[in-house]
Write a structure and sequence with these properties.
The protein is an alpha+beta fold. The chain folds into 2 domains: 2-183, Creatine Amidinohydrolase, Chain A, domain 1, CATH 3.40.350; 189-456, Creatinase/methionine aminopeptidase superfamily (Creatine Amidinohydrolase, Alpha-Beta Complex), CATH 3.90.230. The protein is built from 15 helices and 18 strands. The strands form 6 sheets. The protein has a 5-stranded mixed β-sheet with strand order 6-5-4-1-7. A 4-stranded antiparallel β-sheet has the order 13-14-17-18. It has a 3-stranded antiparallel β-sheet with strand order 9-10-12. Strand 4 (87-91) and strand 5 (94-99) form a beta hairpin. The longest helix has 24 residues, at 213-236. The chain binds glycine (GLY) and manganese (II) ion (2 copies). One manganese (II) ion is lined by residues 273, 285, 287, 425.
Length: 458
């Protein structure tokens, strides 16, 4: 495919007679202003320092083919730019973006560079277009080496994202990633708008999946439903924000069931954990557990209702001024009490909840929520004291997602509970006096979700 025609006539003839390529940059309203405000917040944390961050490069999938490029989240937060190979340098509040220049006519690369030429990959923006789109000084990437020399003895950077930047900078800074994570905890109105769009598109994707449940049962299986959601994600946004989990029947307790090669049966509970990532790279992360045939069995309903009680109690703890961990502790207490009532805990509820006990975690080994934003597990480099041990503030976005995971071969369980997995996950934004549940267009009450499935499935 990438083999070039090697003929003098072709090489001479192809160079001339080309007009301009279209400018392919299309940024939503508010994107450049949001990025400028983010840069100002970062610069204020590092007065007198020079910072350089890269968008990164596409990863090899096999031989000479690549995974689709996805820019580094911190870089996107600071620039609104998603150009592969770009680097931003921020110095005393001034910023310069360095981007690869698309090859031009009269050069061999114009038709011969399969990775960069508009011929091969479609039109790409250069420094001029990025300057106009972002109101940000933009220069060719070839100027980066010169720009990084100068009066600052040291450039704060994050290594391992781009080999060019790595080769031009000496030291790596964990502190930079930590500060960026901590700044990104607070979303501005534009970011909340992006999250809202991500969730709205995700709700449509869940409806698409419900409509295809019949086809899945008739032989399409979990992968048909995964493809169904992912098509919506790819059409309305950039794609799924993480590999969609479609887990039916005994797969539902498997936390990261992304293999999705199972069948779907009428009597199954189907756990769907999926999120659309917008074209600006903000992602939703929503889970519903659906009775495929539109009705819960008694055992499925018993588990579902306990998870729902835990979920509702946890949601009420999401408000400004509360400990971040309050929703988690509440969710766990409700689950532990329910498991104890069912005779599944070998100790009292208090003993189970004690840090040295945690017996109930056999049935929920994962967490019950996390920050959400450009990364599905957002702000992961924030310090414990500003994240898990921190305080909720207006503008924070997070998921709440308790669940119970009863594996088919768990001999501590009565037979009727084995092979049932339930997770309920909503996306929230902390407001001035509480929280807004962005994903509440999807029903969550057991009767309502059962009716929703019956209404929407084919
Ligand atoms: N989908 C990943 C998570 O829920 O955290
Ligand atoms: Mn989640
Ligand atoms: Mn999830």
């Amino acid at each position: 495919m990438a083999k070039l025609v090697d003929a003098d006539g072709f090489r001479t003839y192809i160079r001339d007679g080309w007009g301009e390529w279209d400018n392919p940059i299309s940024l939503p309203q508010g994107a450049k202003e949001a990025a400028a405000a983010h840069r100002a917040r970062l610069a204020a944390q590092f007065p007198g320092r020079r910072i350089a961050l890269a968008a990164g490069r596409a990863h090899v999938r096999s031989n000479d083919t690549f995974h689709e490029f996805r820019a580094d989240s911190d870089f996107v937060w600071l620039t609104g730019c998603q150009a592969e190979g770009a680097v931003v340098v921020i110095e005393d509040g001034d910023a310069t973006l360095f981007v690869p220049t698309p090859s031009e006519a009269h050069t061999v690369d114009f038709f011969g560079d399969a990775d960069r030429s508009p011929f091969w990959i479609g039109a790409a923006a250069g420094p001029k277009q990025w300057t106009e789109a972002l109101d940000l000084t933009t220069r060719p990437i070839e100027d980066l080496a010169h720009a990084l020399k100068g009066r600052h003895p040291e450039t704060l950077t994050a290594k391992g994202v781009d080999p060019l930047l790595d080769s031009l900078t000496g030291s790596h800074s964990d502190e930079l990633r930590t500060v960026l994570s901590e700044l990104r905890r607070i979303k501005d109105d534009w970011e909340i708008g992006q999250l809202r769009q991500a969730v709205d598109a995700t709700v449509k994707g869940f409806l698409d999946v419900a409509a295809e449940l019949g086809q899945a049962v008739r032989g399409g299986g979990e992968r048909w439903l995964q493809g169904t959601f992912d098509r919506r994600a790819r059409t309305e946004g950039n794609g799924p924000g993480y590999t969609s989990i479609v887990a039916s029947g005994p797969h539902a307790p498997v936390l990261h069931w992304t293999r999705c090669d199972g069948q779907v049966n009428e009597a199954d509970l189907l756990l769907l954990d999926a999120g659309v990532e917008t074209r600006t790279l903000y992602t939703a992360d929503v889970t519903r557990t659906l009775p495929v045939g539109g009705e819960f069995s008694a055992a499925q309903r018993q588990v579902y209702d306990l998870v729902l009680r835990s979920h509702v109690a946890a949601l009420a703890e999401v408000k400004p001024g509360n400990d971040y961990s309050a929703f988690h502790h509440t969710a766990m207490r409700v689950l532990a009490e329910g498991l104890h009532d069912w005779g599944l805990l070998p100790v009292s509820v208090d003993k189970a909840l004690d840090p040295s006990g945690q017996h109930h975690r056999r049935y929920i080994v994962c967490g019950t929520g996390h920050f959400l934003g450009l990364d599905v597990h957002d702000c992961a480099d924030a310090r414990q004291e500003t994240y898990q041990q921190g305080i909720l503030e207006r503008g924070m976005a997070l998921t709440v997602e308790p669940g119970l995971y009863f594996h088919p071969n768990d001999e501590t369980l009565p037979p009727e509970l084995r092979g049932i997995g339930v997770r309920l996950e909503d996306d929230l934004v902390v407001t001035g006096d509480g929280a807004e549940v962005l994903s509440d267009a999807l029903p969550i009450d057991a009767d309502e979700i059962a009716a929703w499935v019956s209404r929407n499935r084919s």
